[in-house]
Amino acid sequence: MSNDQTKPMTQELNESDSAPSSRKVVKFLTATALGVTLLFLSGLTLTGTVVALVMATPVMVLFSPILVPSGIVIFLVITGFFFSGGFGVAAITALLWIYNYVKGKQPRGADLLDYARNMVRSVTEKAKEYGQYVQVQHKAGKDAQVKAKHLQQLN
């Protein structure tokens, strides 16, 4: 049993009513002061942002015929660079994977590619067999029709 469970209930109540330690008080005051300071700085930042927006709005309205199209162009150029870079990285990665696969180093996913190749090969073989079967059946059916017509003509 722990030491807390052996204490009488009245003793626990008396201990919880006692004044907090000085360390807890200092921690609380430090946290409170830090929180108030950060809240004040947050308010200052918000106020500065609103003032800057109010002051910049007339300038933005005056220059909007220039700024909006240039902003769109800049956005499209940056987006194009990111996409071209991403596609370049993807192409290099794909070429590196193919190189490693051809060299026999078994890159990640090579076993799935081999499995898919075997499945495709199996399906094509089955399709060829079925095609040959259908051709034989068709030829046999055609021969039977020719014989039947020939017999009808003889009768």
TrEMBL record:
The chain crosses the membrane at residues 28-54, 66-99. One of its GO terms (cellular component) is monolayer-surrounded lipid storage body. It is a multi-pass membrane protein. Its main location: other. Pfam families: Oleosin (PF01277). It is found in: Lipid droplet; Membrane. GO terms for biological process: lipid storage; post-embryonic development; reproductive structure development. InterPro entries: Oleosin. Keywords: Lipid droplet, Membrane, Transmembrane, Transmembrane helix. PANTHER family: OLEOSIN. Belongs to the oleosin family. This is Oleosin. It comes from Hibiscus trionum.
